[in-house]
Amino acid sequence: MKLRFAPSPTGLLHVGNARQAVANALHARRHGAGFLLRIDDTDVERSREEHVQGIQQDLSWLGLQWDEMVRQSERQPRYAAAAERLRHSGRLYPCFESEEELRAKRDLRLRQRKPPVYDRAMLRITPEQRTQAEANGKVPYWRFRLSDGMVTWDDLVLGRSQVKLPSISDPVLIRADGTVLYTLASVVDDLELGITHVLRGEDHVTNTGVQLDILEALGGRPDRFTFAHLPLLLDEAGGKLSKRFDGLSLRALRHDGIEPAALVSYLARLGTSEDPHPLSFAELASTYDVRRVSKSPARFDMRQLLALNRRTTHHMSFEQVRDRLPAGATEVFWNAVRGNVDMLSEMRHWWDVVGGSIVPPVQEDEVGFLLQALDALPDDSAERPWSETTWTEWTTALRDASGRTGRALFHPLRLALTGEEKGPELRDLLPIMGHERVSGRLRMAAS
Ligand SMILES: Nc1ncnc2c1ncn2[C@@H]1O[C@H](COP(=O)(O)OP(=O)(O)OP(=O)(O)O)[C@@H](O)[C@H]1O
Description:
This protein is of the alpha/beta class. The chain is 45% helix and 11% strand. The protein has helices at residues 15-30, 49-62, 76-88, 99-111, 127-135, 182-192, 205-217, 250-256, 260-269, 281-287, 302-314, 318-321, 331-337, 347-355, 367-376, 390-402, 406-418, 426-446, and strands at residues 2-5, 34-39, 68-71, 92-95, 141-144, 150-155, 159-164, 172-174, 197-201, 226-230, 233-234, 298-299.
């Protein structure tokens, strides 16, 4: 058993692509199958080496491991040999129509209310006409003659699926410059590299019909393959995701401070009835079943991912995050703040709050109370250094002195000390901030 994830290196991987990568990796792990990373770089115009590197970095960041990697650009002779076999059996035929001619034919068929399917005119040209076209300098490109019937398969996600081949144009498999198109390359690779399970996006359903037909023409057995087409992931507004826009790329999420474990847990459960929990890859794989993924399109929900990210971050140890924390941040600081951030990147702000300098808002209505608070602030001395009891000591004294309780007591203090309405327990922050910083901020807020 062997699976593959086959992205084209035409941009940054987005969460939709990642959904497929995660599904393949989990399915492979669950069943002890091989996992191939295939770089679909047959489109030389759009493929870029930097994106090949980016894909590997993004998948590694997610914690996904592949057993081998192949690039389609390095397998051209295999595709040429397959094309030769198809030519030999009469399934590949040369075409000379230009794009304009094809467009005119398509428009005519549409006006005649016929489906805009290629009319196979080139299948009927005589050898003389072909020689004439070539003598006129035309170089053919090659189409595959599809069968007449229906292709069916049992899809692990979509259930019984079918593609009616007569309603599809014969696909071009070889361009005039001799380069092969993805449709053929993918079939040759799946056959020759021993793939058994194809888990990919729903955008490939028609391709599956066509590719199964090509596969049979190449002597392959369609029943060797199991397919699962997962619905496409939409952005929060219900729009399409694109490798050309950065918004929901893995790189952007990584820079924003999303934890890979949270993202993998989120994507693994997306579109299933199970609530996402922060689980390890091994835990997710032990129960992963692609058949539980719903047929309906799924929408990316940043709030849900952030909630999961918060839970993941909360459970991370200082050792796990130490290299990603602001310079100087201590374990005490991490333990005080980790339950209060959606993303690790927010740590920079909290480190400024407790270990750096911020300017708290002036609280004109609270000047008297803040000066009273300053008065009641316990000393921080070598004999009695500030500790986790200092906060209670201070606020109890202040309560007695001011007669305030609850929000009226705590809110002006929080705002003065952190500049924020909410945040980690001040009991924990106070000893890290130290007397000088705390008294300075109380004075600033009261000035
Ligand atoms: N929005 C999406 N949701 C889920 N899967 C997707 C989405 N877009 C693409 N995929 C899947 O990602 C995998 C990698 O495909 P591919 O690299 O062709 O992505 P793409 O985003 O469609 O890019 P391109 O525009 O270059 O074709 C395929 O299985 C494809 O079906």
